[in-house]
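Table S4 entry, Carboxymuconolactone decarboxylase family protein.
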Amino acid sequence: MTPRTTCLDAEVRTALRAVGAAAKRGLGDAGLAELVQVRASQLNHCAYCLDMHLGIAREQGVDGRLLDLLAAWEEAGEVFDARERAALALTEAVTVLTEGFVPDAVYEEAARHFDAGELAHLIGLISAINGWNRLMVARRIPAGGTAW
């Protein structure tokens, strides 16, 4: 296997951190922000981000049952409330883009639960974590990795 770089430009790192932090502040729900980041990281198979955001979620008091069932949130019944379900559906639609775009029904459901500013920040957060996931997965940075 070709060795992979652990180098990440400081300006890129600072910019991505700033985007994520601004999106989290604008969303105004730290627990939901962590659920979204964990779910995107699951879909992208990013062990580094999963490890980090699961730890943050636990520190912030996110219900362990939500974290345990997150990979199967659609099948978890009422464990996730309607707002969480809308955010997770949007996370999956933006992350996977199976149809090449975010389906109108998914976007419209999210818009029922988030005002325009919150929705903009939610999409920004999903985009930021996807950027981080891709940076870490492309370079195969492991869970708990420190050289990046």
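The CA atoms of residues 94 and 102 lie 6 Å apart.
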